[in-house]
């Protein structure tokens, strides 16, 4: 009886499917038959055109996995990611030259300032270098700073456990589209129950836009005490002043230490595996 009911429901869903979905399914099945017919070996040989077709189908057709038989769906996703990397590699190599190299004198100066001023962070050293006429990015200053070997009085894990009820994390992650464009997703995550409080998408993130998203995340004066974020340059001076005016204390993670923001990184990782943008 259960098998008959399942078959009946499957037949109804097939009847009421849209004409466009049926046409895409016919295209996918005919293509796979053509690949098998032209492949003499047991393992079908796929050309770049075949891969491009399935990448397009995966972005245009929601139920593309049901008609795929010659390869696994994960393989099609890997094709798209590989094409995305090749596109941006080509764009970078044929575009503007990259960031200029930091001279040895500047690197030695950064380390000297770190040793003589242990309480200074990357923003303070970056500001002092700009006063000296040395044009350098804050991320480069963080890269060449001397790391302190002494652990802090309170470990990072202890801080997160003590303030989980009053702590939120913010971060950006990128989503590639089928046109090889990049969309930026801003995410606000509460640590107490790992709730997503707010998110929004833009193609051109700015400091003003990021500050507006933070205000929209807390519309009823339910402000957290601490705001955990990385050292991305998008969080500029205007954003920091806005956070300070809201009465929130910023807590910056160490450079190149995503494990210090494990909750939000875990959420971003799950989105990266499942979100599909047209």
Mind explaining what this structure looks like?
The protein contains eleven helices and five strands. Helix 3 (48-60) crosses helix 4 and helix 9 (207-217) runs parallel beside helix 10 (237-245). It is of the alpha/beta class and 278 residues long. It has three domains: 2-93, no CATH class; 104-144, no CATH class; 156-274, Ribonuclease H-like superfamily/Ribonuclease H (Nucleotidyltransferase, domain 5). Helix content is 50%, strand content 13%. A hairpin with a 4-residue loop joins strand 2 (182-190) and strand 3 (195-202). Strands 3-2-1-4-5 form a five-stranded mixed sheet, sandwiched between helices.
Give the H and E element order. HHHHHHHHEEEHEHEH
Biggest sheet statistics:
5 strands, mixed
End-to-end Cα distance, whole Å, is 40 Å
- The whole-angstrom Rg is 25 Å
Please write the CATH class name of the largest domain. Alpha Beta
- Helix-strand category: alpha/beta
The mean pLDDT is: 81
Classified in CATH, the superfamily of the largest domain is Ribonuclease H-like superfamily/Ribonuclease H
Number of strands: 5
Sheet with the most strands: spatial strand order: 3-2-1-4-5
What percentage of amino acids are in beta strands?
Answer: 5-15%
- Helix amount, in percent? 40-55%
Number of domains: 3
Q: Low-confidence stretches at least 5 residues in length (pLDDT < 50)?
A: none
CATH-scheme architecture of the largest domain? 2-Layer Sandwich
Q: What is the number of helical segments per DSSP (H or I, 4+ residues)? A: 11
Here the CATH topology of the largest domain equals Nucleotidyltransferase, domain 5
Q: Can you tell me the overall shape?
A: globular
């Amino acid at each position: 009886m259960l098998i008959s009911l399942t078959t009946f429901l499957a037949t109804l869903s097939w009847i009421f499917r849209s004409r466009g979905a049926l046409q895409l399914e016919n295209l996918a099945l005919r293509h796979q038959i053509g690949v098998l017919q032209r492949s003499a070996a047991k393992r079908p040989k796929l050309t770049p055109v075949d891969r491009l077709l399935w990448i397009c189908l995966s972005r245009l057709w929601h139920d593309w996995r049901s008609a795929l038989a010659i390869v696994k769906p994960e393989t099609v996703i890997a094709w798209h990611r590989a094409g995305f990397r090749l596109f941006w590699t080509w764009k970078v190599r044929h575009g503007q030259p990259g960031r200029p190299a930091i001279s040895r004198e500047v690197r030695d100066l950064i380390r000297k300032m770190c040793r003589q001023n242990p309480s200074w962070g990357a923003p303070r050293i970056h500001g002092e270098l700009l006063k000296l006429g040395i044009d350098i990015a804050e991320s480069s200053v963080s890269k060449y700073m001397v790391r302190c070997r002494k652990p802090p009085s309170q470990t990072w894990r202890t801080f997160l456990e003590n303030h989980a009820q009053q702590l939120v994390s913010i971060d950006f992650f990128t989503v590639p589209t089928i046109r090889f464009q990049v969309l930026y997703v801003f995410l606000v995550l509460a640590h107490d129950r790992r709730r997503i409080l707010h998110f929004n998408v833009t193609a051109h993130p700015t400091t003003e836009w990021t500050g507006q998203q933070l205000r929209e995340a807390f519309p009823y004066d339910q402000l957290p005490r601490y705001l955990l974020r990385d050292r991305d340059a998008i969080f500029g001076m205007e954003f920091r002043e806005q956070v300070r005016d809201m009465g929130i204390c910023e807590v910056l993670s160490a450079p190149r230490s995503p494990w210090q923001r494990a909750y939000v990184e875990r959420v971003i990782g799950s989105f990266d595996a499942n979100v599909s943008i047209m």
